[in-house]
Structure formats: C-alpha cells, structure tokens
Design goal:
Shape: globular
Largest sheet: 3 strands, antiparallel
Number of helices: 10
Protein name: Phage integrase family protein
Strand content: 5-15%
GO molecular function: DNA binding
Order of helices and strands: HHHEEEHHHHHHH
Keywords: DNA integration, DNA recombination
CATH architecture: Orthogonal Bundle
CATH topology: hpI Integrase, Chain A
Pfam families: Phage_integrase
InterPro entries: DNA_brk_join_enz, Integrase-like_cat_sf, Integrase_catalytic, Tyrosine_recombinase_XerCD
Length: about 190
C-alpha cells in the first residue's frame, strides 16, 4: 500500500473537494471536508452517528485507541452537519450508505472505507498527489503545524505520543526544517 500525503496547498484542498463533489457526490465531498476539520481516522469518521453530536461537540470513543474523544466543532463542520441532518432527517449515521436504504429490513450502515479510499485515490491521481483516507488527518496536522510551529499542539490534536512520529506523519521533512532556519533570521 502506497504512503499517502498531506495536501500542502490550500488551493489543492479546495480543488479536491470540488472534484469529489463533481465526480462522485456531495456526500463524498462532505466526508473530505468534515475529515479535514475533525482530523479523525477514517473508521471513526465514517462511524459518526448524529447522536454523537451534542451542540458544538463531537463525543465518541476512538476505535483504534478506545479513548474517549471530545472534539469542539468549528463553524464549517457545524454547518455541514446541520445541512446533512436537514437533508436526511431519518439517517442514523452522518455518512450513511444509501445502498442499505434500498435493501429491505437491513440496519443502516455508514459508507464503506473502501469506497471512500477509491474515490480519494482517483481524485488524487487527477491532481497529482498520493491521496488516501489518512490525507485528511495529515493535511489538518500539516496546516496546524505550519500556522503555529507547535508540534506539541499537533501531537495532542492527532493524539500521537511522539514528536518524530507526528513530524513524519504530517510530512515535515528535514528540507522543511532547514527552510524554516534559513527564512527566519533574528
């Protein structure tokens, strides 16, 4: 499995959202946009239920770590969630699969990780970047680091335990660090 990357250009982030909506659906673009704003692993993102959203917070137990997460939602995430809720008042999941609606007597299911992964890879190929389901977390971490230069803050957001892991995860290379030393003269 090829390593996926953070999207370092904000224009490319918007282009990816546009292409996902145009080539797939608004729902797939919403996965991308909410994923960028919540920095969750894809399994946790797709498993969000409307009952997990309490006003301006998302409360869930992370699947990988089994730790409780309480994430304050920003206005963009709130707006998207509110729109989806209005459009799909009977849905259980934020990103509910429409396939199960057609099947009689089957419980609701979220979109599959495989479907989202394929959509992201397809759009990534179109824009020339290795894009995958982890790209949303990596992109959020990368842009937070670039804005703050506070690796501890990024580690906390991503719930990592090592600076080295976090720097590698968000795609900060020695070249980036060297550039920061050259550009900042005191």
């Amino acid at each position: 499995m090829a390593e996926v990357h953070a999207v370092k250009s904000l224009d490319k982030v918007k282009l990816i959202s546009h292409l996902l909506e145009r080539n797939y659906s608004q729902q797939v673009a919403d996965v991308w946009n909410i994923g960028l704003n919540l920095a969750l692993r894809i399994s946790d993102l797709l498993s969000i239920r409307f009952s997990d959203v309490c006003e301006d917070r998302l409360l869930l137990i992370e699947g990988k770590t089994k730790k409780a997460a309480s994430i304050k939602l920003n206005q963009k995430a709130i707006d998207i969630i509110h729109r989806i809720r209005q459009e799909q008042p009977t849905h259980t999941y934020l990103f509910q699969s429409y396939r199960n609606q057609r099947a009689m007597n089957l419980p609701p299911q979220p979109l599959s990780r495989r479907f989202i992964s394929r959509a992201f890879a397809d759009i990534g190929a179109q824009v020339g970047i290795q894009l995958g389901t982890h790209s949303m977390r990596k992109t959020r971490g990368y842009h937070l680091y670039k804005a703050t230069k506070d690796i501890a803050r990024v580690m906390k957001m991503l719930r990592h335990s090592s600076e080295g892991v976090t720097l590698r995860y968000i795609g900060i290379t020695q070249e980036d660090i060297d550039k920061d030393f050259v550009e900042l003269e005191i």
